[in-house]
Structure formats: structure tokens, C-alpha cells
Amino acid sequence: MDMLLMYWLPCLCMIGGMVLAARRLLHYFQLESYQFHGYFQTVNRQWRGAIAPYLALSGIYLGVFLLYTFIAIILWMSDNHASWTVPQVIWALLCCAGYVLAGWLIRKRGMKRSEKKKFALTARMKRLYGSLIVTLLLIPVLVFLFWGDVHAFGAICCVIAALLLPLLVALAGVLALPIEKLIFHLYFKDAEKKLLENPRLIRIGITGSYGKTSTKFILAEILSQKYNVLATPASFNTPMGVTRIIRERLTPAHQVFIGEMGARHVGEIKELSNLVHPTIGILTAVGPQHLDTFKTIERIEKTKYELIDALPQDGLGVFMNDDGIVTRLYEKTGKPKMLAGKEGADAWASDVSVSPQGSHFTLHLGDWEPFECTTPLLGRHNIGNICAACCVAKHLGLNREQIRRGIQQLKPVEHRLQLLKTAGGVTVIDDAFNTNPTSSKEALRVLSSFPGRRVIVTPGMVELGAEEARYNEEFGQAMADAVDVAVLVGKRHTEPIQKGLTEKGFPPESIHVVASLDEAIRVVNGILRPGDVVMYENDLPDHYNEG
After folding, report:
1. What residues have CB less than 8 Å from 457, skipping those under 6 apart?
2. Which of 17-21, 110-114, 336-340 is predicted with the least confidence, judged by mean pLDDT?
3. What's the average model confidence in pLDDT over 220-239?
4. What's phi and psi for 105, nearest 5 deg?
5. Which has the least CB within 10 A, 139, 241, 391, 420?
6. Cα separation, 78 vs 72, whole angstroms
């Protein structure tokens, strides 16, 4: 009983509290795709949410433990030793309940934050929880094995562990890594085998710093006029995400598979290409995206070109003509290739007319006679994406009428310049998925084409490394010429945007700085009137949100 009360019971209850309290940290880890570099960046950036609660937890643990120890010693030293056994047990249980309650309260406090991407208790997260429990259990076990029944010392170690919980979560991730790699390898090989079982399946890979998701959905819609197409949904563009879609959704009836390929590190497109074995590859753009991990544009260029390197000698590479890096990569490529987007390319558009209702243009496609097309998609950049998709469509044997019909049936991709009408006569443009220096300019161009008072709600751009402040300042300068009211989400992060707006003479009274998206919505609802148009440009994930 002495060992149970004075050592194992408080240690186990402390560990239980830590497991409950670690939910926010585990959520950060999940949001960063279980990447350690990104996790530590988030902990550093969100130190109030990632460190302060566990400092408080450690303090609570220490206070409760000292109270428990004091009561236990007083009772143990009493003259009538046996008569105090029951009170001692009661005090032990009450104090140990305090350990668990403290962890639960911190967990509940973290859950009160509005989560845009909900915490998901996936199979991998369950394994990570198990690894965390093992990691935490090692502390009192090792103390007990090496120092014997040392009572308070083991519990004090658990108090210190509560303070170091952000590091212990990472350690749990390290311990789980071999198992995760083995599971992923088995899933990866199973998906690869399933993909290659059908020798007639057309396999297409799409990558780029931006534009890949929109191009994927455009291509899937056009090709569906002739083929049975499976495209990875939403932004499933990681090796595990693409693997999952192949294993769960690919059937022998599918004739085309389109895999979006995202990357934050050199080599990740190569890994995805080893899975998909694409025969056609589309490179949409190379630009300053994820610079916090890539560090340089040259590394981004090398990574994106891994898709073209993976194509067979008789495959097809489709490049978006940007008069820059992508065009240079097109010229470098010796494999069959097509260029899209600018006059004189294999696919390009003339007589472009863009309005709040969509776009109308004349499509020039190879040696065909030009033909007129209409699409409900907003933005000139989407016409470039359509041209790239049409290169592939023509290569795969679709006729003009099939391509025209596919373009006409295109639907706006969710959260990417998606036009929404409200009952109050206010127009909403939802471009909240992501933004970058190129797409933000196009978004402002679209917004400025609308009549009425124009309002923008934005936290700016992230993951741009050392250049982030400069790009956000330029964003603010461009914003000043396109909007009437700016609602900026996050005081610290939007300071460069505020600077850019001020430099261009934007009225200070038309700038509203708020702490969270919820507060931004309240501000917008208070100022909007019929005829206004409001654009939501980017929506930071939970691990960037200052609110």
C-alpha cells in the first residue's frame, strides 16, 4: 500500500493528466503532417498555446503533489497509525484525481478554440497516443528500476515531464516512426501494385507551387466527357493521402487516374512519382511557396521537375508558359512536351472577357481551328489552367465538342475564387483555401472587377520564409488600389500588410485589425450593406491563428 500510494498511483495519475492535456500538441503535430520541423516551428510560433499551459500544468502538479505528500506524512506520523489508513487512501485518491482533472481542464481549454481543421483520431493518431503513453511511463519505470522505491523523486520527475511535454510529444513521434514507416511501406506497395494492375490505365501527375488543385479538377471534368476518371479529392497530395485514395477508391472500371502531387521538401515529388508512375505530367508553376522548408527557389524548381524526370521517354510533359522558370524547364526537356498559356503555345486563349459571371474566350488548340468557350470560373489564371488541361485532353483523343462541353460544365473549386450569393444582397468571394504572391494579385484583380464597395478579409500569406514580410507588404500595397475596406486577421502577422496599405495612402479608418476569423466576421457583418462584395482571401490553419 505504501508503494502504491506514494509512488505508482500519483505517477500514473500525473501521466493520465498529461495524456489528456497533450491534445493540442498532438493536433499541431497532425496539422503539420507529422513533420518534426513544422511541429517545432508551430510550437515556437504558438508558444502561448504550446508551452504556457504545460508550465501551468507542471505548477499544478507540484502544488497538488506537495499537498498530498504533506497530508500523507502527517497521517503516517500519527500515534494511532492503523486508524489513519482509510483517510490516507481517501486523500491519495482525491489528490490523484486533481492530477487528472488538471490535464482534463487544459484539454477542454484548448478545445474551446475554434478549430478550422478538426482534430482527427485516426489510426496513426491512436498509435501516437500509445507511443506517448509508453514514453511517459518510461519516466517512473526507469526511476524505479535504477533508484528503487524513491517515492517523491519519481513523482517530481513527472512534474518536470509536464513542463517538457512539447518535447516528449516529439519524442513519442520518434519512437513511433519505425512502425509508421513500416505501415506506410506496406500501404504504398499495395497501392502501387493496384495502380499498375491495369496496364491500360492512363496515369497523370500534376504538380506546381500553386494552381495544381484547380488544374486537377478542371482536367478531371474535361476528361470525364470521354473517360471514367478518378482524381484525388480536395487537396489529397501527400504520399499517404494519394496512397489512401488509390487503395480505397480505384476500381478496374477507371480509365484515368489523376494524382495531385504536393511537396515541402526535396525528394517528395520523386516519392509520389514512384507511386503513381505517371505517363503524363503537368507542371503548373514554380514560385515562392513553402519557402520556410525549401529555403530557396532553386530547391523548389528541382523538386517540381522531379515529376518530369519520372516520365517515360514516350510520356508527355505539359508546362504552363510563365516566361520564367517553367518556360525554361520546358525548353530544357527532351521528352515529348506541350506548352500552354501564352500566345503561340500549344494551347492559348484570345479575346478573353472576364466578368463576375465567369469568363468567355477563344481557345487555340494545336492545329485545330480556334473555337469559343465559356466557363463560370473566375480569374484569368483559371483560363491558363484550362489551357494546360486542354493540351492533355487533345493528346488523349477528345474532340472539340467534348472539350468545349467540359469547359462549360466546370464548377468553381471550393474556397478558390468561389462566388457565393447571400440573402442580404452582399456578394461573397471565397478564396480562403490558400494564397501566394501570384494568386493574390489575381484575386485582387477579380475583386476589383466587381461594382460596389469592396471589402477584403485576410491574414496575409504564410510559409514564405525570410521573404514573407516583403511579400505581405507588397500584398498590402496592391490591396490599397483594389479594396475600400481591409479587415486584417492577426495583429503581429499582418503588420507588413498594414505598412503596405499605409505607404499607399489607404485611409486608416478603413483598416480593421482583429485577432481571429470569428472576430473578423463580426466586424464584417457590422459594416456590410446591400451591394457590397467581400472577399475572404486565405484562412490560416489553427497552428498559425493568433486568436
Report:
1. 487, 489, 517, 520, 521, 524, 534, 535, 536, 537
2. 110-114
3. 92
4. -65, -40
5. 420
6. 10
The 10 Å Cβ neighbour count of residue 94 is 13
DSSP H or E run through 535: strand 533-537
- Sequence-distant (6+) residues with CB within 8 A of 30 are 119, 120, 122, 125
Q: Which three cell numbers stand for residue 478?
A: 496592391
What DSSP element (H or E) covers 511?
A: strand 511-514
Q: Tell if the pTM clears 0.70, that is, is over it.
A: yes
Distance CA 406, CA 375 (A): 9
In the prediction, which pLDDT does 386 show?
A: 95
Q: Tell whether the torsion through CA atoms of 439, 32, 219 and 393 is positive or negative.
A: positive
Strand partners, 347: 340, 365
**Do 227 and 258 contact (CB within 8 A), yes or no?**
no
260 phi and psi angles, rounded to 5 deg = -75, 140
d(CA 322, CA 189): 36
CA 364 – CA 341 distance, rounded (Å): 10
CA distance 288 to 286: 7
At position 23, the amino acid (one-letter code) is R
pLDDT (average), residues 314-331:
93
pLDDT at res. 1:
45
User: For residues 186 and 399, what is the distance between their CA atoms, to the nearest angstrom?
Assistant: 41
Cα–Cα separations (whole angstroms), residue 234 to 64, 231, 277, 329, 413? 48, 9, 21, 27, 9
Q: Strand, coil or helix: what is 203? A: strand
Locate 279 and state its grid cell: 505517363
pLDDT per residue as tens digits for the range 443-502: 888 888 888 899 999 988 877 777 788 889 999 999 999 999 999 988 888 899 999 999
- What are residue 339's DSSP bridge partners? 319
Amino acid identity of residue 284, one-letter, is T
Question: Residue 377 CA to chain centroid, in angstroms?
Answer: 24
Three-state DSSP state, 206: strand
Which three cell numbers mark 39? 511541429
Helix axes 152-163, 9-21, angle to 10 degrees: 10
Predicted confidence (pLDDT) per residue in 122-147, tens digit: 889 999 999 999 999 888 888 777 77
Q: Which residues pair with 374 in a beta bridge?
A: 360
Secondary structure in 3-state letters for 285-349: CCCCCCHHHHCCHHHHHHHHCHHHHHCCCCCEEEEECCCCHHHHHHHHCCCCEEEECCCCCCEEE
Give, to the nearest 10 degrees, the angle between helix 23-31 and helix 123-147: 130
Decide if pLDDT at 92 tops 70.
Answer: no
Cα-based distances in Å from 363 to 300, 377, 378: 31, 15, 17
Tell me the three-class secondary structure of 478-508, residue by residue.
HHHCCCCEEEEECCCCCHHHHHHHHHCCCCH
Burial bucket for residue 505 (CB in 10 Å: 0-12, 13-18, 19+): exposed
